Amino acid sequence: MTKYYPLIDMDTSGTIKVPMFPTNDYKKALRSSNFALGEVSPHHYRLLAVAPHAMRDYLSYEIRCPKCGATMDVTQPHEGEYVLGEYACTNCQ
User: Where are the beta strands (DSSP E) in 11-80?
Assistant: First the structure.
């Protein structure tokens, strides 16, 4: 079962995003936040958005790992305006 982590901003500029407690419902995760991480495989997460985004809109974000809190790297490009880049945690692998 896929886990979805709502993201909250940890700075005033909104670039550092930290995951909160997981849910199994992506709609619920996006109801409480503008962004969420969907787990696609161990240590790999897809960034999901409520509003449409281009790649240039989210590449400056610092997305933290739900497991260890380290900054993750983008490993795959976005799939669409709402299904954004895939991130991986090299610290957890």
Answer: 16-19, 35-41, 44-49, 62-63, 73-76
| Dihedral (Cα; 81, 40, 87, 8), 10-degree rounding | 70
Q: Where are the alpha helices (DSSP H) in 12-90?
A: 26-31, 55-58
Question: Would you say 28 and 38 are in contact if contact means Cβ atoms under 8 Å apart?
Answer: no
For residue 55, pLDDT beyond 90: no
Q: What angle do CA 56, 10, 37 make, to 5 degrees?
A: 60
CA 60 to chain centre: 13
Q: How confident is the model at residue 40 (pLDDT cuts 50, 70, 90)?
A: very high
Q: State residue 56's pLDDT score.
A: 84
